[in-house]
Amino acid sequence: MVIKNGNVFTKNAVFKQLQIGITDTLITTVSNDISNQDTIIDATGCYVIPGLTDIHFHGCVGYDFCDGTKEAISAIAAYELRNGITTICPTTMTLSEEALRSICSVAAEYAKTTHEKEASFAGIHLEGPFLSYEKRGAQNPEFLHKPDVAMLQRLQKSANGLAKIVSIAPEKEGAMECISALKDDFVFSIAHTTANYEQAFAAFTAGAKHVTHLYNAMPPFSHREPGVIGAAFDSKSCEVELICDGIHIAPSVVRATFQLFSDDRIILISDSMMATGLTDGTYTLGGQPVIVKGNRATLENGTIAGSATNLMDCMRIAIQQMGIPLESAIKAATINPAKSIGIDTKYGSIEEGKIANMIILNKDLSINNIIFNGKLLAL
After folding, report:
1. Do 2 and 376 contact (CB within 8 A), yes or no?
2. Hey, is 113 helix, strand or coil?
3. Residue of 54, 64, 271, 313 marked active site
């Protein structure tokens, strides 16, 4: 297969008129001219970008990752793929250790098999239970737990090594010990926290290198109290997640954040919950009722409870409504998340030798074609 005449998003995050050769599941050639190919996809007037990677989302189309069933994962992965998210790292909520271990075990079994029309399962994001009560947001306070090295190791054993990210409040007793002991096994992400600048910076120095949904569930960025956001800025290896659904963060702040951190350090996420892809109504997240109106999802007390927007739509909103440059937004939804969880040798960019997961977008950013594992999907 060859994709011709498209504006290809390269590994350097710029667009070039290139042709892409695909053999079996891999990208074999990215060059100015490819001949002698049987199947040709004409991408004239279109953008050709890598498939998106979402490293923080909970569910969609009526299913939640914490349902803990292969049926739920299959439905979630199929929806994500249809919307151009070709690689997923779904996220747990704050639950009992028994429940989390069961979810991890089911996910590990699911991941052993290739699923033809379902997004590739690349890992698990453990959002909780090592979080702050004061900044718990939609996390269930009944199951909040002191950070625990042995518990994390048990969860990772159940996950068969698939747990990639651990969200953690660094001010909690035991957090620094977890980060120091297991920084080579997990990406530790500061989250749902009351931490001040000094506590957050100490966590980054100890080995944390990620921030979960920046601005949300943490102290604000103030001129005298820079908090987690200031500490993340000063820790140059730290990456930050950003929800661009138009609800969680004002457009001006999104633009300022891209200036502050640059598109090298920002990862777009959806934080989507089970209502994504469905109509308004009452749903659940982490066992708590969530009211969804439009793309706003809240608990009964008004607390924002995830989003009802998938990552492709978040990327579109960032570009079309918030003024983020096309190249920067795409990079933050493809290259950066893949790098953050260590899967960039296979995914995240259009390069020879990588898995042939690509999205062909029309100029209005609607999906024209999806190529997944080297095959053209029927839309």
Report:
1. no
2. coil
3. 271
Phi, psi at residue 270, to the nearest 5°?
-105, -35
CA dihedral 74, 75, 76, 78 (to 10 degrees): 80
For residue 38 the two structure tokens come to 């049987």
CB of 191 closer than 8 Å to CB of 240 = no
**pLDDT tens digits, 146-189:** 999 999 999 999 999 999 999 999 999 999 999 999 999 999 99
Any idea which architecture 2-48+361-376 has in CATH?
Roll (2.30)
Judge whether 245 counts as a catalytic residue.
no
Classify residue 37 as exposed, middle or buried by CB count within 10 Å of its CB (0-12, 13-18, 19+).
middle
C-beta of residue 3 within 8 angstroms of C-beta of residue 358: yes
**Dist CA 199 CA 220 (whole Å):** 15
Q: How far apart, in whole angstroms, are the C-alpha atoms of residue 307 and residue 315?
A: 14
Query: Mind listing the pLDDT tens digit for each residue in 347-360?
Result: 999 999 999 999 99
Angle between the N-to-C axes of helices 97-111 and 70-82, in degrees from 0 to 180, rounded to the nearest 10: 60
Phi first, then psi, for residue 35 (nearest 5°) are -125, 175
**Rounded to an integer, what distance in angstroms lies between the CA atom of residue 315 and that of residue 51?**
12
Q: What is the DSSP pairing of strand 266-269 with strand 239-243?
A: parallel
Which CATH number applies to 52-342: 3.20.20.140, 2.20.25.100, 3.90.940.10, 1.10.1740.10? 3.20.20.140
- Give pLDDT tens digits for 193-232: 999 999 999 999 999 999 999 999 999 999 999 999 999 9
